[in-house]
Amino acid sequence: MTPRQLHFLQRLVAQKPAERRNEGTAAEMAVHEGVGRRDRSRIQYAAADFVKAQNILITRGYPVEAPASGFTRSSAPAGGSEKTGARAVSQDLVAAVPLNMAFQLPPGTNFVAMAWQDAVKLPFSAVLLCENLEALRDIRSYAWLDGFVRGRPTLAVFRGAPGYFRTDAPAALLRATDAPVLGFFDLDPQGLCFAAGTLRLEALLLPPVDVLEQRLLQLKRRHLFTQQFQKAQAQLEQLPEGQLRDLWQLLKRHSLGLDQEGFPREL
């Protein structure tokens, strides 16, 4: 029995549908196993079909119930796919760079991938939350960050993105610690929204405003503003007086944004 057929029978027993389309695995099981009655474009199911499906599973040594999603590939059920329903291999991982800690990366290593449950046990007193992975890889090249880190043992962590290093792992790490957070984000509408929603934000890591304005005008990243403006406007217009609101006014004045990679390395 193929993993697809196994999954089909398990779902059939669990859901007990009245019918399915006469195609794919449903058609295969109707023709070869007699599960369901074919009726033109549909396959009709009666109570006896659900019993038959359950008996096929039992007599061939397969579990009647599908395992809950989120299992590791090494614990995939017999006869089932090690991929279907398994959690992503990188589900609990964060990309991290230790700063001012005894634990240091080997030469030539940009960052380390580790489970957030292990990362939270490291002896840090602050978390540096970084929006972009490239900026995290080059985190030590931004010399002016030292003025915010102030020599403290700090764990720099990638905020995460769809498809790799998920956002829920660093979020779980932040919830599991009381350490203050240093926010290192793009200077664009989305970056300001990230900053506004960050737990225990101690500081937004940016060069002086005059330097930022000069870089904004020099690099002219207009798309970073125009592509994000509509989605972020409602939230940002509600910002209270302070640094974030001032930065929002700066972005609106020029209709420009600035990515982290465009920040100066030295001041």
Mean pLDDT: 88
Number of DSSP helical runs: 12
- Derived structural class: alpha/beta
Unreliable sequence segments: none
Order of helices and strands: HEHEEHEEHEHHEHEHEHHHH
> How many strands, which pairing sense, and closed or not: the largest β-sheet?
6 strands, mixed
Keyword list:
single chain; 9 strands; about 270 residues; elongated; six-stranded mixed sheet; alpha/beta; three-stranded antiparallel sheet; 2 domains
Describe the fold and architecture.
- By secondary structure, this protein is an alpha/beta fold.
- It has 2 domains: about 5-75, no CATH class; about 95-260, no CATH class.
- The protein contains 12 helices and 9 strands.
- It has helices spanning about 5-15, 25-35, 45-60, 115-120, 135, 145-150, 170-175, 190-195, 210-220, 225, 230-235, 245-255, and strands at about 20, 35-40, 40-45, 95-100, 110-115, 125-130, 155-160, 180-185, 200-205.
- The strands form 2 sheets. Strands 5-4-7-6-8-9 form a 6-stranded mixed sheet.
- Strand 8, helix 8 (about 190-195) and strand 9 form a beta-alpha-beta unit.
In short:
The protein is an alpha/beta fold.
Task: Chart the SSEs and their pairings.
Blueprint: H1 3-15, E1 19-21, H2 24-33, E2 37-39, E3 42-44, H3 47-59, E4 93-99, E5 112-115, H4 116-119, E6 126-130, H5 133-137, H6 146-149, E7 154-158, H7 168-175, E8 181-184, H8 189-196, E9 201-204, H9 209-219, H10 223-226, H11 229-236, H12 243-254
Parallel strand pairs: 6-7, 6-8, 8-9
Antiparallel strand pairs: 1-3, 2-3, 4-5, 4-7
Helix pairs in contact: 1-3, 8-11, 8-12
